[in-house]
UniProtKB/TrEMBL annotation, chains A, B:
It comes from the Bacteria. GO terms for molecular function: deaminase activity; hydrolase activity, acting on carbon-nitrogen (but not peptide) bonds, in cyclic amidines; metal ion binding. Coiled coil: none annotated. It comes from Egibacter rhizosphaerae. It holds the Pfam family Amidohydro_1. Residues 15-34 are annotated as: Disordered. Keywords: Hydrolase, Metal-binding, Zinc. Signal peptide: none annotated. InterPro entries: Amidohydro-rel (IPR006680), Metal-dep_hydrolase_composite (IPR011059), Metal_Hydrolase (IPR032466), MTA/SAH_deaminase (IPR050287). Residues 41-396 form the Amidohydrolase-related domain. This is Amidohydrolase.
Length: 424, 424
């Protein structure tokens, strides 16, 4: 189930859900689990399927500049100066933010993936880190694509199996238009051989792939399919704003999932993805915040509300993406998009990543039917109602306070490092 | 100024701002004022220019139904059963919500305007109440338009002058397509004679005025101009989503202001208003939440973020409605739209309606320039950062808690009344 009015949750020793039950039910006896009695409303931990969270370091910088000027004058120079420690602190502040908003899992794409993993492990959150293989001016210090890929594979090998069940390492190709074809096929082959999640940016803006499409005489999704990029079992295509019906058919038959980033896509005027069409076609869709430089926070509640708003603007249908479907996106939809059947739903065997909301608030009044609760969760609740959060059964947020991160220090580190990155 | 890092604020005995200064400045001596030393960031109290706030009673009810079915099966029957006491409690819960979000002034359009005024006075907030004159099936108990108008004029007479400086009473015609022409002219004449704010819904959905436009051979704004509806000094046209260039020129020359309701307009799939065009033409634009039955809360911070997102979706320009302009909408824009030069800006002589935000939070990190603060206020801050609120110098919210409303009772009243309204 996605929404639960507890009752209780039983969590086994490994941190997985053993049972959930309502207040009238006696919790099962036994010593092989812990029982958490909770009031209010319980949700599965939210899943942010596409973010570059360490970009907290660039939050609000160069706002309202035209895209290219912003990238060339603000983002790329600062990212070029970023080191692994900066990334660690950017990610640490992001973890505090994510956890406080009830986002227990994030799928990250950034440089210095090891620093990202370290921050996540220290903060007690959960993530899928996909190291971004990228060949771009100013980023030469990252090395060539093959060496970046080797590093990413090596990091993945270290976390393969049960090294830390909260950390999964995947692979990422930045985009078809920023990498040579042999890099794309090389990354995909590596992902396929090791069954790793494979992430890529596709069709974020309308004309980004125009040159490539002219050269190959086909759309970027068609090209990616042709070169075998969609062959790994789990492929996640971020954004996917500008897809034709044919592209959509490719996603469906190849089992490609979409990371939909509504706020980033509208803020940067990229466009509105065809989310209702994706869902109708049976394509898995999760929600992503994208990076805090372009959003500017990591609040998945905002995305869950914006997604249906934008589908209604796009289709002219006031019933597009109703509350239940919208709430499915950051929960079971996110788990599906990441190919993670161990997340996103409150049921036996899945990880006890839990979010408890305070419902003694005007946002939940009146409550006449169960349907009203779903409406309130999407349309009037927000991250401010998140009170307690658990990851694998461990409490990481209590009464709105993050227990696992020294937020004051994280803020000071990010402030000081951002000053250095800005001035060179 | 709109954003102020205090410092201090001096408030005179009447509740108006005498001086604002930064932390380095000594506050002026004297006994004719009180000095409030504050940390964090100070904004003028936000102004919600279009709402039907007592519809908290219908929040989340009949969600995701097609518009007409929702109105006919849910909204109208329940509103038909609503009495003045219901309205009072719906508005009381709304006042708590508004104040907690830092919204100190709301422009209300609803039945039982006297109950709305009573709730606002008890809650210590500020409002412009425009009684909605409406002729509609199921609403016969409200009386004919002339009798509704007489009641609204009478209420306004009682609050004319200095009866209560926190309460202004205006007039409202529900819409051109729900009232006979003589009612529209009658209401406008009454507003003009008494210099009252005159509010009306215009062009909310694409085809709502089609019949009327066919009959008169002109657009609704052109018709309203012809019959003198725009002659009063202060006219506020809510929504105004579907305006032609000619309609826009009419608004400009007649000095008509717009109440822009981005979330309501997208949720109901009405469309996206031409806000950047309005501003370019010098038309005053404020932000409205619309009623909690169609939004579903009264959080103006969400509107201030959604407005630029939608303008970017509409225009394809990533720099449309930059942060400073977006932040102007719920502050000075709202004051202009209501024709209220005593609100919306932190400066001497205006009402000391103040909102203090807590900025020791990830949403405000990093902060490298003053421009960053504006970006953070629009793109990563939210109503959860509102800590303290004053209306006319009186503290109504302290550390996030509303001092002037018994919220628990208000929630219980709304819950119980909503149950009755739902079942008849």
């Amino acid at each position: 189930m996605t929404v639960h009015r507890p009752g209780f949750v039983d969590v086994d020793h490994a941190g997985r859900i053993e049972d959930v039950g309502d207040a009238t039910q006696p919790p099962p006896a036994g010593t092989d689990h812990t029982t958490q009695r909770v009031s209010g409303v319980l949700l599965p931990g939210l899943v942010n399927v596409h973010c570059h969270s360490p970009m907290t370091l660039l939050r609000g910088s160069g706002e309202d500049l035209p895209l290219l000027q912003w990238l060339e004058e603000v983002v790329w120079p600062r990212e070029g100066r970023m080191n692994a420690d900066d990334t660690y602190w950017g990610m640490t502040l992001a973890c505090a933010e994510l956890l406080r908003f009830g986002v227990t899992t994030s799928c990250e794409m950034y440089f210095y993936p090891e620093a990202v993993v370290d921050a996540v492990r220290d903060a007690g959150s959960r993530c899928v880190v996909t190291a971004a293989v990228l060949v771009a001016p100013g980023m030469e210090h990252l090395g060539g694509w093959q060496s970046q890929l080797d590093t990413a594979i090596g990091l993945g090998d270290r976390y393969a199996g049960d090294a830390d069940p909260r950390v999964e390492v995947g692979l990422a190709a930045h985009a078809a238009y920023t990498l040579p074809i042999e890099a794309l096929t090389g990354i995909a082959e590596a992902a396929g051989q090791r069954d790793r999640l494979l992430q890529i940016h596709v069709a974020e803006s309308q004309h980004e792939g125009a040159e490539l499409e002219a050269e190959h005489g086909k759309s970027v999704p068609a090209l990616l399919e042709d070169i075998g990029f969609f062959e790994p079992r789990r492929v996640l295509a971020a954004h996917s704003v500008w897809l034709s019906d044919e592209d959509l058919a490719i996603y469906r038959r190849a089992g490609v999932a979409v990371a939909h980033c509504p706020q980033s896509n509208t803020k940067l005027a990229s466009g509105i993805a065809r989310v209702t069409d994706f869902l109708e076609a049976g394509i898995a869709v999760g929600l992503g915040t994208d990076g805090p430089a372009s959003n500017n926070d990591l609040d998945l509640w905002e995305e869950a509300r914006l997604a249906p708003l934008l589908q209604r603007a796009r289709t002219g249908e006031a019933t597009a993406l109703p509350a239940e479907a919208a709430l499915g996106l950051p929960t079971r939809g996110g788990a599906q998009a990441l190919g993670r059947p161990d997340l996103g739903v409150l049921e036996r065997g899945r990880w006890a990543d839990l979010v408890r909301l305070e419902t003694a608030d005007a946002a939940f009044v009146p409550m006449l039917t169960d349907r009203d609760l779903l409406a309130h969760l999407v349309w009037s609740a927000s991250s401010r109602h998140v009170r307690d959060v658990w990851v694998a059964g461990r409490r990481v947020v209590a009464n709105g306070v993050v227990l696992t991160v020294d937020e004051e220090r994280a803020r000071a580190e990010v402030q000081q490092r951002a000053e250095r990155l800005a001035t060179g």
